[in-house]
Amino acid sequence: MRVIDEINEVVNQIPLMRRVKFYKIRKNPLEELQEAEFKIKYRFSRSTTVFLIDMVKNDLAGDSRGGFIPPYLKVLTAIRTWARGEIQDDAGDLSGMSQPTISLVCKQVALALERIQLNKCTSCVKF
Predict the structure, then answer these.
(1) What confidence tier does 16 reach under pLDDT thresholds 50, 70, 90?
(2) Residue 40 falls inside a structural domain
(3) Residue 61 domain-assigned?
(4) Structural domain of residue 98, as residue ranges?
């Protein structure tokens, strides 16, 4: 029992080190890409993409815990994944997100676009 008490004493003296979390730097393609390059990568013009982002940004505004992903980046990631038929893992590498996060983001954007369609928006995307 004395050995166990000594081990517990040593363990209690070691300060707990919390692992530092590093977030990937995410670029904003709306600002960094030229119009022609943007259209090639996303299959939409920049103005159309901004219009889509404005339509769904309230539905995509999540909590800011952890690695918050802004609504514009969610829409851009989903559009690129769908438009180019990219594998989610590759799209994640480009946007600094994991494959499960890409899957969740695509689902969130699809549901937000569906809510707009259900509200019978006449100037919106037709499926």
Answers:
(1) low
(2) yes
(3) yes
(4) 27-118
